[in-house]
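Dear support,

We are seeing what looks like truncated structure output for some complexes. This example has two components. We would appreciate it if you could run it in full and send us the complete C-alpha cell output so we can diff it against ours.
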Amino acid sequence: MLQKREKVLLLRTFQGRTLRIVREHYLRPSVPCNSALCPQPAACRNEGKLLSSDVTHYVIPDWKVVQDYLEILEFPELKGIIFMQTACQAVQHQRGRRQYNKLRNLLKDARHDCILFANEFQQHCYLPRERGESMEKWQTRSIYNAAVWYYHHCQDRMPIVMVTEDEEAIQQYGSETEGVFMISFKNYLDNFWPDLKAARELCDSILQSRQERENESQESHGKEYPEHLPLEVLEAGIKSGRYIQGILNVNKHRAQIEAFVRLQGASSKDSGLISDILIHGMKARNRSIHGDAVVVELLPKNEWKGRTAALCENDSDDKALGESPSEPMPTGRVVGILQKNWRDYVVTFPSKEEVQSQGKNAQKILVTPWDYRIPKIRISTQQAEALQVANTDFRVVVRIDSWESTSVYPNGHFVRVLGRIGDLEGEIATILVENSISVVPFSEAQMCEMPVNTPENPWKVSPEEEQVRKDLRKTHLVFSIDPKGCEDVDDTLSVRTLNNGNLELGVHIADVTHFVAPNSYIDVEARTRATTYYLADRRYDMLPSILSADLCSLLGGVDRYAVSVMWELDETSYEIKKVWYGRTIIRSAYKLFYEAAQELLDGNFSIVDDIPELKDLDEKSRQVKLEELVWAIGKLTDIARHIRAKRDRCGALELEGVEVRVQLDEKKNIHDLIPKQPLEVHETVAECMILANHWVAKKIWESFPHQALLRQHPSPHQEFFSELRECAKAKGFFIDTRSNKTLADSLDNANDPNDPIVNRLLRSMATQAMSNALYFSTGSCAEEEFHHYGLALDKYTHFTSPIRRYSDIVVHRLLMAAISKDKKIEIKENLLSNKDLEELCRHINNRNRAAQHSQKQSTELFQCMYFKDKDPETEERCITDGVIYSIRTNGVLVFIPRFGIKGAAYLKNKDGLVISCGPDSCSEWKPGSLQRFQNKIISTTTAGQSVTFHLFDHVTVRISVQALRCHSDTIRLEIISNKPYMIANTELFHQSSLLLKSELVKEVTRSMEEAQLAQEVKVNVIQEEYQEYCQTKGRSLYTLLEEIRDLALLDVSSNYRL
Amino acid sequence: MAGLELLSDQGYRVDGRRAGELRKIQARMGVFAQADGSAYIEQGNTKALAVVYGPHEIRGSRSRALPDRALVNCQYSSATFSTGERKRRPHGDRKSCEMGLQLRQTFEAAILTQLHPRSQIDIYVQVLQADGGTYAACVNAATLAVLDAGIPMRDFVCACSAGFVEGTALADLSHVEEAAGGPQLALALLPASGQIALLEMDARLHEDHLERVLEAAAQAARDVHTLLDHVVRQHVREASILLGD
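Here is the complete output from our reference environment:
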C-alpha cells in the first residue's frame, strides 16, 4: 500500500564538502483531505476539523504567499484555506520556528476555517523534483498539482483559487485546468474580498515595507549598530560562560537609557552574578526590544555604571530600590538575540506639526508606541498621507518587521485602527492589545457544544449521572454565600453533624469539567483565554454565559453537578479525621449574600425578610429552617477561625495591596468611593476555600507526583526587604524578615497608634518585596520548592473557581483522574504530560499577569478620567492628604490613602527651583538646593529657609492629570503644603488599622460578639474589592480575596525591582 | 532555521510514514551457493547481507570448543560505501565488535545449540548501506540465513528499533530520526513465544514511557515476522519446484 520513493539531497557540510544524502519518501493512496465535500470520508479517514462546504471557493496559497502574508491569512473572515504541506515546509525552513508555530496554531485553531493537506505523501499529488529545477519552481508546481488533484477529489464541485506571487506561474498554469484558478494575492483580495478593507490595507503595508527593506539593503548606509553574532557563536559563548543569556527588560521611566537583563536559568549560577545586568543606552542594547531573549557580553569593570535614583519625567510609579544611586553594577552590551518576542504594538501617529519637523521624507513616518519601553517605529507606507491625516487622532496597531543594523529605528507596518485617543473604548482596546488579550465573541462551533437550557427544553440531571454521582440533595444542607446579585456561583458550603458525633464540612465546587470536554472547541478557547479578564468597568468571560451564569452556577433551589471535598472533623478540636473527594449532585438551599449571612451570625433575624427562600413559609417551619441555617453558619465560622488560627501559627501573612476600585454610575462616569464594612463571613468563606485548595493539592500531588498542577509562592530574597527595613527603622520599628512567621509578627507590631497608614504602607512594601505566586507542574520542581510562602502551606493549588480560571479546570481533571485511579478504574482522560503541563502553566501565568496588568491599567485610566474633568485649582476633591513613603534625590513618592494612588511629587522643578514652605505652610518655588538623607530630605532656599520632609510625613497634595497624546494620561501630584490636609474625611481611615494576628489567635476561643468587633476593623482592601463587585456583578468574595493576594503579589512585578 | 519536525501535527514522520509503520522490507534467501546459508535484506535503505557456515568442527584453537553445545561465532562489518561519506572501517573496531557480540547473544538464544556439541556455527553479516536500524537489519538477515542453512532454531528472531518523540513511540527509525538524538531502543523478539532475545537502549527514557516504546517495538517485530515468514515460504516453494517434487 505504501509506495517507496527516494529523494536525493545534496547538502554542504561544514567543511565545505558536498554530501549526497538519500532519503526515503513514502507515498500513500489516501491522505486525509479534511473537506466536508469528500466523496469517501471513510477512505480518507478525516478527523478533526473539516473545511466547511458552504464557501464559494477554496483558496490555496502558494509557498511565497504563506511566508509573506500569513498575518492576512489569519483573518477569520477568510474561509476555506488549504495550506499545502509543501508550503508549510517552506515556512518552516525559511522563516524559522516562530513563524512556523504561528502557522501551526492557526491550523489547530477551530475558529479558523483552514486545514493542512499533506500533499507530499499522497501518491498522485507528489511530484519528484526534476533535474536542474529550482526549489521555488518545484514548490509552486507541487502545490499546483495538488490543487488540481484536490479539485478532482471533491468531484469538481468546489472551484479552487490558487494565489501566488509568481507571475510566470500564473502565465503557465492560469488556464490549464478548468475550475482551478491562479491569480496573484493582491488580485485575489481585490476581487474576492472587496469589503475586507483591513486585509487589503495590511497587504499593501506589508508589500510596501518589504520593498523598502529591499531598497535599503541595496543602499547600505553607514551602520548604526554592530551586527549580531551568528547563533553557533552565541551558543558556544553561553556554554563557555563568556556570554550571558537573559530577558531584556527596559526601564519604563528611562526607556532611552536604561535596560536590564534578567538572567535565565543556569547562566546565573555559573557567572556568580546575583543582580541583573545593566544595558546602558540604545547602542549597547543593539536593536533588542523589551521582552526579547538576548545574549549579553559583560563590559570590563571600569566601564560599569550605576543606576539613576532621581525621579524623572514620567516617574509615576514607585520602585522598590534599595541600593544607593551611584554604586556601579554589572554592565554589558547585547551581542545577539536568541528569540524576538515581538507582538502587536499600539502607536500614535505624529501630529501635523511634528511631521513637518520630521522633514519631507513623505514615505516614512516615525510613530510613537503607547508603551514607553518600545522604541519609535518607522512605518513606510504609500497610504502615508492618507493614514497620516486620518489617524492623527487615533490609536493604531502596528507590527515590527525588521531592524537592520543600518537603521536607527525598527521598520514596521500598519495593521489596523483601534479607536480615538482619549475615547474610553479606544483606550480600553489599547490596553487589551498591549496585554495581548484577544477577546472575540464565542463562535458558533463553540456554542454548538454547549448544553441547552431554555424554558421549552430545560436542562435536567441525567439518569446515568445520577448513578455515578453521590446524591447530596436530600441529605445535606448546602448553601452559598456570595455578594448580592451574583450570577456565577462556583462554590457552596455545607456542614452537618454525623451520627458518630463528628462534624462533616463540605465544599462543593461547580463541575465545569463535566460540560467542558478536554480538547473540545470550548476547552481550547478557554485555554487560550486562561482566565476571565476583569477590567474596571467590564469583564471578558472565560466560558460562555450559558455555563458561567447558568448550568455551572450553583444557584439556589435547582439541581446542579458539583465536585465536592468533604472532611470529617472532630466535634470539639476540629481535627481533620477523614477526607472524601468526588462528584456529587447538589441542590443549594440558600443563595445568601454576605450581609444577610453576617446578620444571621450576629443573631439579628430581621434580615430574614430579605432571604427569598424563607419568605413564603409559614411562621413555624420558617423558624425551624432558620435555626438550622443559623447553626450551620455559626459552626462554619467557628471551624474557619480554628483553621485560620492554625495557619497563622505557621506564619501566614496578611498582605496589603493598594488597589483602588472606581465606582461608576450608569453613564460610565466615575462616582465616589462608598466604604463598605468588611465582614467576618468573608474570612470564613475564604478560609474554607483555602482549605479545599490545600487538600486537593495534596491529593493530586500524591496521585500524580510528576504531573500535578500546583501553585507556589517562593520565599522572597532578603535583599529586597532592605527598603522595608530602612523605612520601618525611620519610625522606630524593627522588621524581622527571616521567615514568614517573623515577618508577620513584626508587621503586626509595627503599628503606629497615631497613624494607621504607616502599617498599611509597610505591609504594601513587604508585598512588593515578594515574588509572584505561580502555577507550576510538580514534575519540573523539587518538592521543597512547592510551598506557598504567603499562605504558609506546603502545597497549594487553585480548585475552587473553575468558572473563571482555567487552572482550576485542569486541577478538576487531575482530581477526577486521581479518584478513578484510587478506584482502580482505567483513567479515561488523557492527562497532560509534565512537559505539556509546564508549557500550559507558563501560558496561564502569562495570561494572569496580562489580566492583572490590564486591570491595573484600566483602573489608572479611570482614575485619570475622574480627575480629568475636574479643575485642580477649584475642585475640592483634588486636594487631599498624602503620606511620603520613599525619598529620592529630587523628590518624594507619595501615597494617597483617599484614592489609593501612589505617585511622585517633585521638590525641585524643571527650572531648578526648590520647594519651600512658608509659616502658613503653603508651598512656593524658590531657588535653592536639596539635600537627601536616609529618611528625610531637606530643601533649603538661597534665602536660608529650609523645610524638611520625613518618611511617613503627612502632606497636602494637589492631584492633576497630565494629558499625553501618545501614551496614557498620568496623574501628577504637587505638594502644596507640608501639613496634613485638614478635613473631616479622616474618619474614613479609622477602620484601616489592622487586626493583629496574635489577637486573632486568642480571639478564636473568645465569644462571637467580641470577635465580631475586632473583625470589623479588618483590612481595608476588602471594601475596595467589594466595590468592584458592585460593578461587574458576579464574583464570589472568595475569588476577590484570592485576587487581593494575587494583586498584592503583582505589585512586585518587573518594573519595581529594576 | 527550525529543526526537523520528526512527527508533524498530522501524525506523519519525515519520510511520510505514520508512527507505527515499518519501512519497506524486501528479502531474498539463498543468494550465495558456496555458503551453507545466505540471505539479503533491504529495510528501507538499510541493506544487509548475511552468510552462515556450519555447524562444522571448531576451527583454530580446539580449546574454544564447548562440550555441551555449539559455539556461535558472529562477525559484523560494514562496507566503506555504506554511509553518505566514504569511510574506511577496519575490522575489529569497537563498534563492529560490539555489534558482533550482540548478534552472538541474540542467536545463542534462538539456535538450538545443544544439538551440535563441540561444533561451531559462523554468522557473517555485512551492511552494504546504512540508513538507520542496522542492528535490526542484521538480525533479520541472519535469521533468514540461518534458516537457509537448515540449522534448527526455536523460532524466528525478528528485530526492530523504536524511538520516542513528543510523547509518541515511533517504530523502525530511519537514519534521520536516529540522528536527531532521541532515545532509541533495539529489540529482538521470538515472536511465537513473545520472549525477548535482546533488548538494548543507550539513552535515557522515563520509566513511564518504556512500556509504550517497548510495545511499539514488539508490534513492529511481529510485523517483521509476518513478512519474513512470507519470504521463507516463498523460497521453500521455489526450491521445491526446482527439485521437481
